[in-house]
Structures are given as structure tokens and as C-alpha cells.
Amino acid sequence: MSTPPEMSPEMPAAVPAGLPAAPELTEPPAEWHRLHVRMLVVRPLNEGIAMLVPILVLLFTGNGERWRLIASGATVAAILAFSYFIWRTTRYRITDDQVELHTGLLTRKQLAVPRDRIRTVDLTSKPGHRVFGLSAVRIGTGQQDTPGTDGLTLDAVTQEEAERLRVLLLRKGVSPRVAAPTGERDAEPLPESEVISRLDLKWLKYAPLSLSGLVAIGALFGVLSNYADDVGLHPVQDLFEWLFDRPSVGLIGTFVLGLIVAGLVLSVPLYVLQFWNYRLTREPDGTLRVQRGLLTTRSVSVEEQRLRGVDIQEPLLVRAGKGAKTVAVTTGLGSKGESNLLLPPAPLEVAHQVSRDVLKVEDDPTLNALREHPLAALRRSMFRHIVPWVVIAAGLAIWAPSWAWPIPAAVIPFAALVGWDNYRSLGHALDERYLVTRNNSLVRSTVALQRTGIIGWRIRRSFFQRRSGLMTIGATTAAGAGVYHVTDVGESDGLTLADAAVPDLLRPFLVEESAVGEKSSVD
């Protein structure tokens, strides 16, 4: 009896007679890719900018001790080594179902984002990235309940590869087999984008009104103070001691005036840095794309089908200049930060035009006539804005130096004006598609929220609201801030509004007034 020859690995397995041959694999599995090798230079460059101040402090303070030179060199070497290990241990790939990222040397991290959960793609290029033609790709899912679960970041790939990944990840149903790195395939021309809005240099007049310069001064002062504390200096403490050791209305007024002037001067270059080359476009792949930035460029793409409305925001001084900015209410982007910004501070009519174009409507719903709230809401607004300052002034008059209490006392008239304006800003409306609500004074916000995007109601009635016959009713949604409030509305009006906006959602919990009256008469 003969023995069959041993099969080699190259020989195909025999197929029994009568059974069909196994199909051959015609498509290779998705390949793993590394980040671009240029990141070995880019990451130290970006990290070096942040570490420049402490390195200089180490080098140029003291009497030239050798340990300072060693510490500075060790810091630079650590940054270089850290960059190499990140590049060496990081891989990513795109499959039919998900985007995977593996990284880490001692502690391995394996992240996976389902492609059908991708909501946004954010391309960011810091100065170091731009010098070497790279970009960081942040893939957002909108899952912000747990830190680190909101997508993943590929830092860094070439700008061409970043653009291609943006199109691939936001275009549903596209095979990742085309996801080979740029240079291994021929570039395919994409259809042209529709430009909705672009930067107009006339908008620079709104920069000083946004108070961004004061915010920048505060942030810069805080950073420099931290570094100064490390070398034994205490500028914040010294400044306040100098001011309060010589209490003078003229001195404090001069300090505040100088701060305001510095903020106004800085606000214009900050506006340019943030919003230079701003463009809002509608892409052929069904996304809205915002591009902006001078030194650090940023491109945020959002699927239009995830858009649930818009928010016209009018900070007090910007509103005085008849300006506003437009913010997207969309799943995948929260209400904080600037990633949801559709339009920077610009003329109010431009904000409404952007709202119309983004929502694809003839009339901007945020311009709907709003229903006023009861006068009891005015009393509550005035009380909340005035009484705290009265209490502070009284407390300082009793326990603080005589020069302290006039400061909060001088604020009381302005607080009263803000309270009055806060009441005037309250309002709500309802049309066939949108719930519109407006709140606040310092940053007046008018939100148009799709009724189909409302998934529940949150009703709050404080002790004082119950005594005044008011309530605050919040429309909960999976987009934007998560809940948008109709503040201090009459109880009957609020419940009627909620029932009309989303029929049958709140109705099981409502009781007709006639039924309540009949029950009372029977009792």
C-alpha cells in the first residue's frame, strides 16, 4: 500500500469530488499604516515651543551651574526620545467597519471607532505641522460621557492624506481599499465646493467688541505667573499688594483703563490669528466645512444630516455693534469650544444669512416673532441681578475698609440694566419645523432647534418659581449643549409649548384643567 506524499505549504489542499472549489480572495485585508516619519521632527518642534520658557529659565538663571545645562539637554533628549517611541509604536488602519489605532510602548492602547459613529473630522495644522506639510486628523464620535472616548487622533499625516481621510471617513459606504497612503494611488479630482461665507476684512471692527484681548491677557498673565513662581517671583501677589497698599480711585481706574486699552489693541491680531482665511463651504460629500486660521490652521467637517439647528449668539458689546456669530447645533459637537463655530463675529444680517443657507430655508427661524414671558419673570431677573451686589456692598461696608463698598455699589445700576435686558431677551416661538428660544443678556443666545431632534423634556420649578406661577422647561436633544431652555415661562404656556412641539411625548403626564375643576367640585 502506497503512502501519499507529504503536502508542502505551497501546494493547495485537495478538494473532494463533487464539492465546489473555495473562492479565492480577490481583495487584500486592510493594511496597517504608520504616521508620517516627519513627525519625528514636528513633535519636538511643537513640544519645544511649549517647553521653551522653562528651558530658557534653566539656562539663564543662576550662576551658570553645570546641572542647569545638563537638565536642559536632558529635557530636549527626552522630547526627542518620546517622539521616536510614539512614531515607532503607533499604527492605524481603516476597515469596512471601523478605524483602528494602536499605540504605546509599555502600556499598549488599542482604540477603535466604528465608521457609522463618526460625526466629525477635524484637521488641525500647527506651525510645526505646516512647515513640514503635515496635519493632525481628529475623528469625533460625539461620545463625551467618559474622557478619552470621543474618537481618536492621528498626529500626524501628510496634508494630502488628511484631506483624503476626511472625504473617506465622512462618505458612507466607501470601501477602505482605497485608503492606501497618498502617493500609492493617483489623485482623483473632487467636485467643487459651494462657498456659503468667507472672511470680510470689515468684520475686524467686531474684534475689540468681543473682549478676546482681555481673555488673552488673562491667560498670558496666568502662564507667565506660573513660570515666575517657579523661580521665586510672585507678580500677582506683588501687584495686588501694590494696588491695595495705596487705595486710590484714580490708581485703580488707571489700571483698569490700561487693561482695557491693552485688550482692545490685542483683540484685532487675535481675530486675525483665529479667523484668517475663514471659509464656510458645503462639500459634495454632504458635509459642512469650516476652514480658518493663520499660524495654526483648522478644518472642521460636519455631516449635514447630523445638523439639528443653529444658535445665533450676540455678546453684549458685539450686539451693541449690531453683530453676532453663528454656532452649529449638531450631534458630535458639544456647545463648548470653537469646533462648532460656523461664523465668527460678523454683522447680524450675515449671521442670519448663514443660518438660512446652512438650514436650507427661505426664512431664518431665529427671526420668528417671539412670545414674551410674564412680568413675574422680570421680577425674578431683577432680583437675581441686583440683590447679590447689594449684599456684597453691605458686607464690605460692615467688615471691610471704607473704600471697598463703593465698588459693588457702583455696579448696582449696571446690574439693574442687565436684569432688565435679560428679561427683554426672554422669548420663545414654534413653527412647523423649529422650536425657537432666546435667553441671557451678556451673551444673548437665540436657538432654532429642529422639533424632530427633541427627545425629551426637563421641567424645573424652584420654590420662588412656583410662587410666581413660572417654570423653566428644557428641550433635551442629542446635539449641541444637550438641553435648551425656555426660561421663566408661564406654567400653562410652557406645558402647551412642549405638548405642541412634540405631540404625545408629554401628554400622558398632563392633566386637563377642566378635569381638575370637576374633581375639586366633587370633593
Task: List the defining traits of the structure above.
523 residues, alpha+beta, PH-domain like, 14 helices, 20 strands, 24% strand, globular, disordered N terminus, disordered C terminus
- Which strands sit side by side, in order, in the main sheet? 7-6-5-11-10-9-8
What is the terminal separation in angstroms? 104 Å
User: How large is the count of helical segments?
Assistant: 14
- E-strand count: 20
Per the principal axes of the C-alpha atoms, what is the gross shape? globular
Q: Structural class of the helix and strand makeup? A: alpha+beta
Low-confidence stretches: 1-28, 181-187, 515-523
Strand content: 15-25%
Helix content: 25-40%
What does this structure look like?
The protein has 523 residues and is an alpha+beta fold. Among the domains are: 33-183, no CATH class; 202-275, no CATH class; 375-513, Roll (PH-domain like). 40% of the residues lie in helices and 24% in strands. It contains 14 helices and 20 strands. The strands form four sheets. It has a seven-stranded antiparallel β-sheet with strand order 7-6-5-11-10-9-8, with helices on both faces. Strands 14-13-12-17-16-15 form a six-stranded antiparallel β-sheet, sandwiched between helices. It has a four-stranded antiparallel β-sheet with strand order 1-2-3-4. Strand 16 (434-439) and strand 17 (443-450) form a beta hairpin. Helix 1 (39-60) packs antiparallel against helix 2 (66-89) and helix 5 packs across helix 7. The termini are far apart. The model is unreliable at 1-28, 181-187 and 515-523 (pLDDT under 50).
